[in-house]
């Protein structure tokens, strides 16, 4: 617990003293080799030391370095240290960095199919998403989606089930959402718009300042552990559940395909294995830490938990399928991924309906 609190304090200090964005380095050529050692740069979309995703990214870099015995050393650059957080995809594609740790839902402007590989409204939970990627054809579709950019994607961390969001005022009906400016990304933003709210996109490092200053009235981000670290409770006292936008929080590791191809077979295997190990470890960590953080938020910080009204969830669910259909329309790759995703969802429901769901209610 002491280490977790220390990490959180360091993260908050980083937010308060964040340095301006450094200029991007020159394009990648061959991997830097000294005494047969390879050095890679990893850029991230997260502020340094941020609970959850920031910790996961650093641990992934450390895993690869240690598993390779130092033959492949990965140095992490947090958002803004080498490139801005929302430019890491381009940095890996161009070879400015060999790796990135981020989330696919940021890249729908580059390829619509990308959003399916983080999470979808009323979609797969974390374990169900992993089942689709590993066993249901999801990885092959993901590889194909990113191949045009010279990028190989891996799952590499998961923040698990998310919360509904932080609000400055109570939401007791659909009318209470009208005109609310909410930070939301992915298709969840489109659903909030259908509910009468105004979605606003802010990168992770800008969310708390935006909430504090009034740029937004509400924030939908991750779960209690990460949300507490970003300090949202200081500006919005009402914490809503359940989520409809993010039943899963899959992070991604992006690897420059050319750099990956130059690695010997054992180092390629280490990169893949490190991502797989971190994916499982981070999901378990988030599940544990979210429970602790939620209790801390309510008992020590006076956060008030609220459940979304039934009419909000009903309208959100009704809007979800049409919004997804319209989003993927006229985009062959997005349509193909959506078809596979929905088959995985139906498959998951068949099993969940006689296993996890009734057990959870009985417990």
Question: Helix and strand layout, with pairings?
Answer:
Elements: H1 2-16, E1 32-34, E2 37-44, H2 53-67, E3 72-77, H3 88-94, E4 99-102, H4 126-135, H5 138-147, E5 151-158, E6 165-167, E7 181-183, H6 187-194, E8 198-200, H7 204-213, E9 218-219, H8 224-230, E10 238-241, E11 250-256, H9 257-261, H10 265-300, E12 304-307, H11 310-328, H12 332-352, H13 356-362
Parallel strand pairs: 2-3, 2-4, 7-8, 7-9, 10-12
Antiparallel strand pairs: 1-2, 4-11, 5-11, 6-9, 6-10
What does this 3D model show about the protein?
- The protein is α/β, with parallel strands linked by helices.
- It has helices spanning 2-16, 53-67, 88-94, 126-135, 138-147, 187-194, 204-213, 224-230, 257-261, 265-300, 310-328, 332-352, 356-362; strands spanning 32-34, 37-44, 72-77, 99-102, 151-158, 165-167, 181-183, 198-200, 218-219, 238-241, 250-256, 304-307.
- It has a domain at 2-160 and 249-290: 3-Layer(aba) Sandwich (D-Maltodextrin-Binding Protein, domain 2).
- Helix 6 (187-194) links the parallel strand 7 and strand 8 (198-200).
- Helix 4 crosses helix 5 (138-147).
- The longest helix is centred in the last third of the chain and has 36 residues, at 265-300.
Summary, kept brief:
This protein has 363 residues and is of the alpha/beta class. It contains 13 helices and 12 strands. It has a domain at 2-160 and 249-290: Bacterial extracellular solute-binding protein, family 7 (D-Maltodextrin-Binding Protein, domain 2, 3-Layer(aba) Sandwich).
